[in-house]
Amino acid sequence: MKKTLLILLLAAAVCLMVACNSGENESKPEPVSTEVSGNTAEHTPTGYLFESNGVTFGVGSAAADVIDKLGAQTSEPYTSNSCAFNGKDTVYYFGSFEVSANDETGDFVIYSVYLKDDSVSTKEGAYIGMTPEEVKAIYGEPAESSDGGFSYVKEGMKLNFFLKDGAVSAISYYVNN
């Protein structure tokens, strides 16, 4: 039962990140500025953190503190109405990883970081291509696991490891409501 629930939760998280639009009232993505504004003092990251280009951040970080410091994006950000939260979601693309933020509070706050290839790793050293045993040697036993992956929960967020053919195929940091 726990495995089935984890698979469903992971699938739902991926679906929310990939395709919030049901096809009705289709609209084109809104153009967005790469500048991010907001009150950065009120938003501090929690749980496991990610580091890239000398910038350390995580779920709960103010996007305004992070996005410009990460350097050039590989494509334009994509903004749409959120189907998981109130307000707008914006996805920022940095090649090997993506950062998603939401403006529900009036400021864009990071709710997800998605690692896509083995050129980046978690701050603790886990990367795509590792075996589950190698990841568990770093983090210990996961809070949740299934055939499709496993998760660690810490301070209001989840660190998810997705598996394919016996190896980590993707990693995501995600808000744990």
Instruction: Please trace the helix and strand order, writing H or E for each element.
Output: HEEHEEEEHEEEE
Number of helices: 3
Number of domains: 1
> Order of strands across the widest beta sheet?
3-4-5-6-10-9-8-7
Biggest sheet record: 8 strands, antiparallel
Q: What's the end-to-end separation, in Å?
A: 21 Å
**Backbone structural class:** alpha+beta
What would you report as the Rg, rounded to the nearest angstrom? 16 Å
- CATH class group: Mainly Beta
Strand proportion, as a percent range, falls in 25-35%
The amount of helix comes to: 10-25%
Quickly give the CATH architecture.
Sandwich
Form type:
globular
Low-confidence stretches: 1-41
How would you describe this protein?
There is one protein chain. By secondary structure, the protein is an alpha+beta fold. About 15% of the residues lie in helices and about 35% in strands. It has helices spanning about 1-20, 65, 130-140, and strands spanning about 50, 55, 75-80, 90-95, 95-100, 110-115, 145, 150-155, 155-165, 165-175. The strands form 2 sheets. It has an 8-stranded antiparallel beta sheet with strand order 3-4-5-6-10-9-8-7, covered by helices on one side. Strands 1-2 form a two-stranded antiparallel sheet. Strand 9 (about 155-165) and strand 10 (about 165-175) form a beta hairpin. The longest helix is centred in the N-terminal third of the chain and has 17 residues, at about 1-20. The chain is globular and about 40 Å long.
